Amino acid sequence: MRKTVVIAGVALLLGVFSAQAQTHSEYKFIFSGTAYQTNAAGALVATHITDQTLLRSRAEQGNIANLNTVAIVYHINGDPLGDTVEIVSTNGTYLTTEFGFFFGADSSLGRIDVGIITEGGQRSVDPIYTFDDSTYTYSNSDSVGAAFTFKRFVAGAKGTTNAIIQGTMSWTVIPSGTNTNPVLCMGTFSLGKPMD
Asked: What is the full per-residue pLDDT of the chain (196 aa) written as tens digits?
């Protein structure tokens, strides 16, 4: 009986934190990393890339000259399959998905997350999906890499709940469009200010 009450209490607590966390579901996506690619001479070249590099690549592709009119955001539960990183206009209009962090805790695939999101945090390995061709993505029906994600929701001031999400990610881009050679991207990510 006592075990049932404790389990019910934990479930209720998780539900409360989840409901509060949904108050802010979109946050500025912050990324810093390196893209590795061979040049025409066959030498490996490393290029520093950031969230602004990813945003600029997508803005140019959409003929958007002013980067102040678009943003790259981390969207908690942006898809039924998991979290997404999206390009949106500053008025909130969705433009495209840069990354999907999908199936990280899909027990049917033998994948689990570890820890409790409201106490100490939760860690997972989230396969990364990309859906169309750009400088740093390509259209593929399978994962192109993985994110090692730490996620935690904590109570903030005045009854708010803050999401803390950070980790490392790496993914590959096969030659397509303007990419004539494969690209390997690696870096770290975290959340900035809420967007909604």
From this structure: 333 333 333 333 344 444 433 357 899 999 999 999 988 888 999 999 999 999 999 998 888 888 899 999 999 999 999 999 999 998 888 999 999 999 888 778 877 778 877 778 899 999 999 998 888 999 988 999 999 999 998 887 777 788 999 999 999 998 876 667 889 999 999 999 988 6
Taking the CB of residue 127, how many other CB atoms lie within 10 A of it?
A: 21
In this prediction the pTM is 0.82
Which token pair is 81?
């399959």
Is residue 157 classed as helix, strand or coil in its secondary structure? Answer: helix
Rounded CA separation 173/185 (Å): 8
Residues in the chain: 196
